[in-house]
Amino acid sequence: MLLKNKVAVVTGGNSGIGKAIVLELARRGAKIVVDYVSHPDAAAELEKRVASLGDQAIGVEADVSQLADLERLIATTVKAFGQLDIMINNAGIETRTSVLETTEQQYDKVLQVNLKSAFFGTQLAAKQMIKQGGGGRIINITSVHEDWPMPGNTAYCLSKGGMRMLTRTAGVELARHNILVVGVGPGAVATPINLSTMQNPDEMAKLDAAIPLGRMAQPEEIASVVAFLAGDGASYMTATTVFADGGLMQSSPGL
Fold first, then answer.
1. What are the tens digits of pLDDT across the range 84-93?
2. Is the dihedral of CA 120, 11, 95, 155 positive or negative?
3. What sign has the CA pseudo-torsion 202, 206, 207, 209?
């Protein structure tokens, strides 16, 4: 059990990539706090699945775009398990709107859920890790779009670009505490956020043709990268992003 006795928080943890991360970390022995903002039944079912693997998990309903909820999430984690070793800033949304179309409300929501939550999640987790001593891992689930334009999804790209610099700057600042900060940048992944594309055969054919590996990733393939970064094998990695995109960024000018 490579992560035995470790405690991890996964924001947006009851669906998509977050759910796959929860299960993969549990398989490796970690205790898990599953943050969610909707579908409590899915979070409860996930707790049962983690328990079946021999590990512990608790679900915490918290809107991570709100600082008070993030503070409660971290406090609940420490109260339940006594520590926090791995923080996965995974929660994310998009509006699929362009510069000309995006409203103030849409902009604020995307930046708050994607970037604000990652910033203060990093801050609060780091403070707890420093208090404990012994370092820790903060892993930000970004996107190829932290570096790669996606016309028609501007606020999302801005939020992921912000996560890129958060990862690099926090990684440098926190290195002296042995807190490693790394981003994971997925390409196209078969999750609910991409459901509209997955239900359109023409769009899927276009996307598959653009990916050198010829297919979308499965959430479990991203989760395995996250689990590696959470373990001892990644002990010299910080302030950078690991891309898992099937070669997409190297083959196409942007999607």
1. 999 999 999 9
2. positive
3. positive
- The yes-or-no answer on residue 36 being catalytic is no
Q: What is the pTM of this model?
A: 0.96
> For 173-216, how does the pLDDT look when each residue is reduced to its tens digit (9 = 90+)?
999 999 999 999 999 999 987 888 889 988 899 999 999 999 99
CB neighbours of 3 closer than 8 A, spacing ≥ 6? 25, 28, 29, 30, 86, 227, 230, 231
Reported as half-sphere exposure (CB side, CA atoms, 13 A), residue 152 has a value of 3
Distances from the Cα of 51 to the Cαs of 16, 81, 85, 156, 164, in angstroms? 19, 15, 20, 34, 34
In the set 36, 107, 156, 236, the catalytic residue is 156
Domain extents for the chain?
7-247
What is the 8-class DSSP label of residue 152?
Answer: T
**CB 113 within 8 Å of CB 92:** yes
Report d(CA 200, CA 187) in Å as an integer. 18
Percentages of the chain per state (helix, strand, coil), in multiples of 5: 50, 15, 35
CA-CA distance, 243 to 249, in Å (whole number)?
9
Residue with tokens 């924001």: 11
CATH class of 7-247: alpha beta
